[in-house]
Amino acid sequence: MRAMDVMTTDVITVDPETTVQALATLLAERGISGAPVVDASGRLVGIVSEGDLLHRAEIGTARRHRERRRSWWLDHFAAELARDYVKSHGRTVKDIMTRDVVTVTEDTDLGEVAALLEAKRIKRVPVTRDGKVIGIISRANLVRALAATKGAPPREGEDDDRTIRARLVAELSREEWAKVWPEDIIVRDGVVHFWLSSDETEENKQALRVAAETTSGIRGVEEHVVPAPVFPAF
Asked: E strands, the chain, where?
């Protein structure tokens, strides 16, 4: 399987000039833990996550450094201390974002994606084409892909699964009732796996099943229910 088969395509992005408070609100309300940062032309310039908001002066969690006498080794760490200050006091996304972003392409093998997430100790990686974000892959995307395999090795007809998925996604995109994201649909060995929220209506579940069963090439349909997101009350 490749990145294109499991990536989230409806990517929430932010502007470098977005305020830190607006970013925090976005992450909380959308129930996401990070977002790519793009410029006015849509090109990727950075990435921010909830980890960038942990140490903030506004909530008293800024890193604290004991006062020491000036010495050569303190000078050596001065740049790091300055970066910590910017992270905890910066007002916009451009002040706190990571600029050296690890990315993959839509054709990147999932094995390579998994290796990157592990080696870089990151939770998500943007998928880019010509410098622009077309998707994002998180650890959750990989877990869902694994769940769909049922322990079986990839078959030679994997490209057929990709064609079937594209056909089903295209059909659902034309239907107003179909409130399911492409990343919540995985096709493996001709079987469609839907990842549905626990508050999904029975009518929608039935309609999704019918749409899948009437799509050429599909041999079966399976539903996986995940808890509906709970948003904090302020």
From this structure: 34-38, 44-49, 124-129, 132-138, 185-188, 191-197, 220-226
Residues 6+ apart with CB under 8 A from 53: 20, 23, 24, 27, 96
Asked if residues 164 and 216 have their Cβ atoms less than 8 Å apart, the reply is yes
Structure tokens at 94: 């451009």
Domain locations in the chain as residue ranges: 1-140, 150-226
Q: With contact defined as beta carbons under 8 Å apart, do 4 and 162 qualify?
A: yes
Length of the chain: 234
Contact 63/88 with Cβ under 8 angstroms?
yes
The contacts found for 115-118 with CB under 8 angstroms, 24 or more apart, are 117/142
Q: Is 59 left (phi over 0), alpha (psi -120 to 50) or beta?
A: alpha
Question: Using CA of residue 38, residue 39, residue 43, residue 44, what is the dihedral sign?
Answer: negative
Q: Flag residues of the chain having pLDDT under 50.
A: 72, 233-234
Query: What CATH architecture does domain 150-226 belong to?
Result: 2-Layer Sandwich (3.30)
pLDDT at residue number 58: 86
Helix, strand, coil share of the chain (percent; to 5): 40, 20, 35
Q: Please tell me the predicted confidence (pLDDT) of residue 113.
A: 92
Q: 176 burial class (0-12, 13-18, 19+ CB within 10 angstroms)?
A: exposed
Orientation of helix 139-149 relative to helix 110-120, angle to 10°: 140
* Domain covering 1-140: architecture: Roll (3.10)
Give the per-residue pLDDT at 9: 87
Cβ atoms of 35 and 27 within 8 Å: the answer is: yes
